[in-house]
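Figure 6 in text form: structure in, sequence out.
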């Protein structure tokens, strides 16, 4: 046998040895983990309260470093039900440890999410939302958030009475608590089985305040504007939007600065206001300078946002209905002009550029009018209060 053949045979043997060793180590690790799961389930099911608290903490530590498979095995070993019973304990440590364990068991595991809700976790979690203790309350909100991501859980959570308690967190919770509460409410709002809206007019003011403070193109703004659009479909919600300090202005600013999704929802809310009573809402929307943003939206928004912006622009015009030049007619006129100028091949691009120029010019004129009104004010005409 030549030297090259000997080297090749040695390399193959070495590789085989490494694979065998690796497999043995993996098997040993899996065996230790299986033993650990059995021990944890025994302690959580049959131990005294102190033992259960320690077991719950160990469950959290184990699943944080493990795969979804380990979460599934722990659930199959029967740890979920005793953890839910611990939520009902008057002992703070028991509730805290069980909340964290359940939260980690549910993360990235749809089967466990459904198992936890089926086992009866929602009622005690809702009770925890009523507590004055901010830590437990917001951990409960985070747990409900994780569970609400599973479609089968949404009707159960929606019917549990959690929504009004989550709205309270919008006003008094921490930043993370508010983010979690908005996300839960957004998740639940998509549930097809909801007979009534998941939130009422009481949610409007805190949602408007949060939308004022956040970046209008953020995911958070998208969820908040989606909820505000839903609320704008009721008279209670519409009144709350107009009564909120800067309510309509905040929606107009979102139309101007939001992402594609948040602008679509914001213009939807404004359109809902104007559709419900043009005489009441038209001037309120115009007063906040909505036209430039709406014009830009007819060019740059999603197809739905563009349609909504055109419809709202038509409603905001002061001319009689039969004499109105609709937005769609305006776009056709611009397109015809562009075709004559640059030919049909480049007409769409030219038309878009012309409409963008019109938007820019409209914005400049609006700003000039605002500056003119400001400069023409005399001290006697400025309200003292």
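Output sequence:
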């Amino acid at each position: 046998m030549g030297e090259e053949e000997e080297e090749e045979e040695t390399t193959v043997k070495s590789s085989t040895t490494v694979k065998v060793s690796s497999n043995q180590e993996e098997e040993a690790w899996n065996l230790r983990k299986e033993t650990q799961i059995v021990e944890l389930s025994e302690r959580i099911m049959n131990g005294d309260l102190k033992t259960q608290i320690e077991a719950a903490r160990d469950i959290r530590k184990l699943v944080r470093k493990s795969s979804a498979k380990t979460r599934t095995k722990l659930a199959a070993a029967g740890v979920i039900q005793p953890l839910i019973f611990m939520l009902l304990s008057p002992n703070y440590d028991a509730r805290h440890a069980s909340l964290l364990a359940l939260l980690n068991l549910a993360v990235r595991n749809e089967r466990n999410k459904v198992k936890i809700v089926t086992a009866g976790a929602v009622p005690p979690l809702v009770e925890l939302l009523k507590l004055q203790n901010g830590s437990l309350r917001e951990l409960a909100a985070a747990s409900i958030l994780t569970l609400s991501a599973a479609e089968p859980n949404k009707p159960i959570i929606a019917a549990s009475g959690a929504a009004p308690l989550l709205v309270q967190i919008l006003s008094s919770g921490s930043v993370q608590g508010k983010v979690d509460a908005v996300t839960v409410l957004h998740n639940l709002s998509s549930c097809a089985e909801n007979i009534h809206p998941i939130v009422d007019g009481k949610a409007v003011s805190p949602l408007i305040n949060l939308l004022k403070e956040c970046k209008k193109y953020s995911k958070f703004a998208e969820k908040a504007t989606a909820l505000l659009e839903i609320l704008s479909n009721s008279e209670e919600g519409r009144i709350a939007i107009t009564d909120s300090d800067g309510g309509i202005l905040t929606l107009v600013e979102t139309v101007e600065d939001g992402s594609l999704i948040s602008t679509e929802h914001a213009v939807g809310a404004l359109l809902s206001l104007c559709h419900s009573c043009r005489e009441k809402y038209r001037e309120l929307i115009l007063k906040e300078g909505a036209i430039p943003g709406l014009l830009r939206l007819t060019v740059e928004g999603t197809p739905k946002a563009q349609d909504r912006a055109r419809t709202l622009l038509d409603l905001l015009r002061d001319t009689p209905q039969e004499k109105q030049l609709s937005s769609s007619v305006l776009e056709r006129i611009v397109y015809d002009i562009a075709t004559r100028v640059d030919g049909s091949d480049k007409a769409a691009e030219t038309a878009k550029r012309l409409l963008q120029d019109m938007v820019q010019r409209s914005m400049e004129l609006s700003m000039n009018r605002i500056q003119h009104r400001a400069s023409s004010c005399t001290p006697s005409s400025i309200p003292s209060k």
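Caption detail: Residues 200-318 form a domain with the Leucine-rich Repeat Variant fold (CATH 1.25.10.10).
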